[in-house]
């Protein structure tokens, strides 16, 4: 009977220690997150070189490189239009169509 009480006390104390120390360890051991070169593309303007549709990826040119692209909310963006990069998902970028009044600089 004495051994069962020891095992239960050990288990309870272990769980409490994990719950207390895990948030502290995540906060202090994570370190600073360093942005990659790809992160600097977010917010940049790009030229659509192949039409982007809801069903098919297109292509954009940003900072001298061609990227496969999809549009935000599945908006159709024809080739020759300008867009803004919203995010990077895997090996393609997600873009949103720019309005005619937006400042366009690629």
CATH-assigned homologous superfamily of the largest domain: Nucleic acid-binding proteins
Mean pLDDT: 86
**Radius of gyration, in angstroms, nearest whole number:** 25 Å
- Read across the widest sheet, the strand sequence of neighbours is 1-2-3-5-4
Straight-line N-to-C gap: 75 Å
List the helices and strands and how they pair.
Layout: H1 2-29, E1 45-50, E2 58-62, E3 65-71, E4 82-89, E5 92-97
Parallel strand pairs: 3-5
Antiparallel strand pairs: 1-2, 1-4, 2-3, 4-5
Give a quick summary of the entry.
This protein has one helix spanning 2-29; strands at residues 45-50, 58-62, 65-71, 82-89, 92-97. The protein has 1 helix and 5 strands; from the N terminus they run αβββββ.
Question: Could you name the key traits of this structure?
Answer:
106 residues, OB fold (Dihydrolipoamide Acetyltransferase, E2P), 5 strands, 30% strand, 2 domains, single chain, 5-stranded mixed beta barrel, alpha+beta
Describe what you observe in this structure:
A hairpin with a 2-residue loop joins strand 2 and strand 3. 26% of the residues lie in helices and 30% in strands. The mean pLDDT is 86. It is α+β, with helices and mostly antiparallel strands. It has 2 domains: 33 residues; 61 residues, Nucleic acid-binding proteins (OB fold (Dihydrolipoamide Acetyltransferase, E2P)), CATH 2.40.50.140. It is built from 1 helix and 5 strands, in the order αβββββ.
């Amino acid at each position: 009977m004495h051994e069962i009480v020891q095992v239960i006390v050990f288990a309870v104390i272990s769980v409490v220690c994990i719950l207390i120390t895990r948030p502290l360890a995540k906060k202090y051991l994570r370190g600073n997150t360093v942005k990659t070169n790809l992160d600097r593309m977010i917010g940049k303007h790009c030229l659509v070189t192949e039409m982007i549709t809801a069903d098919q990826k297109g292509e954009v040119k940003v900072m001298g490189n061609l990227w496969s692209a999809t549009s935000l909310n599945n908006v159709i963006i024809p080739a020759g239009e300008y867009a803004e990069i919203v995010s990077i998902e895997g090996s393609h970028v997600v873009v949103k169509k720019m309005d005619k009044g937006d400042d366009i600089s690629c």
